Amino acid sequence: MRVEAKLRKDRKTKKLAKRIMAGEIALINHIDIDEVAAKSLVEAKIKLVINAAESISGRYPNAGPNILVNENILIIDNVGEEIFDSLEEGDTIIVEDGKIYRDNELIGEGELMTSDVVAQKTKHAYENIGAELDRFIDNTIEYARKEKGMILGDVEIPKMKTNYDGKHVLVVVRGHNYKADLQAIISYIEEVKPVLVGVDGGADALLEFGYKPDVIVGDMDSVSDEALKSAKEIVVHAYTNGKAPGLKRVEELGLKAVIFASPGTSEDIAMLAAYEYNAKLIVALGTHSNMIDFLEKGRKGMASTFLVRLKIGARLIDARGVSMLYKSRLKLKYILALIVTALFPVLILISLSPKVQTFMQLVEIKMRLLLGM
């Protein structure tokens, strides 16, 4: 297969997906391409992916490569850092049989990831999942000991202007199947009017559906400027030492932010803040809640998530996968019954009309004459 197109590159796939154009080639450096990243590239309608790293390392069965090849987007895999550095944004390159050319010069090559290759590597990854699970559990327990202060009151909750007291809070993360799940609960949003909290890119998910986030929580690495400017309040997730790299970006936009220093993930502190400020109910959508989710995020354990959910308890409802819970299907007999029911009063009114009665009598006479009755 021969592909010739303009190249765009970024070490952060989620950043690249926002600016790459349809028909272009994506150059990334993304070990174990995750589902969300793959779907964002598919939505961008790219031609090809060149990955400096291994798209499937074998540590766990990540879904990203399979999503790409199923959409007929081939992957030239594991080309190396040298090729990543040598190719420039905007270069027009030719890719043929795994080889990469620029100005008729061979730049390098990688493994062509066809559907068969992806299936084989994914199968091998499934065989390794047991050992990875052991390491994941050990890390979770180890970090839970260190981070137990999250539920014992050792983490200071910053003062916020958003009023959570007695309200429903919807925490949106741009995770697995988030669009379908968000679509499924639109009626809930419209009726209940919950406090809308976007975790980084989750704020953009809310904007996609026409909602402005009340609060944005995160390290500000995957949220758009538009979303940041639309939010009523911004909470920057900082390291436990108080350092908050994401604050600089917020300040450069001329915006103010609250600093929340805490271990764990941004979605954890988003839910923790809602809980501590007495939210009546916390609905989590698109959040990361299993081992594969956390491995895709590059985390070795899920201690903070375990601890926060343990603390919040029954006040938390996980809406992940809600779109798959029930899919209504109208059967033909119900549709016919609706039509008959709707037509019944119309037919009665028509039959009572003098003009219609006269017309029906004429039809009856005509039929009698034709039949010789």
Automatic annotation (TrEMBL):
Q: Which residues cross the membrane?
A: 334-352
Q: Domain Thiamin pyrophosphokinase catalytic, which positions?
A: 194-233
Keyword Secreted attached:
no
A Pfam family it matches: SteA-like_C
Q: Name its GO BP terms in alphabetical order.
A: thiamine diphosphate biosynthetic process
Query: Any idea where the SteA-like C-terminal domain is?
Result: 320-371
- Kindly state which keywords UniProt assigns to this record, in alphabetical order: ATP-binding, Kinase, Membrane, Nucleotide-binding, Transferase, Transmembrane, Transmembrane helix
Name of the molecule in the record: Thiamine pyrophosphokinase
- Which species is listed as the source? Peptostreptococcus russellii
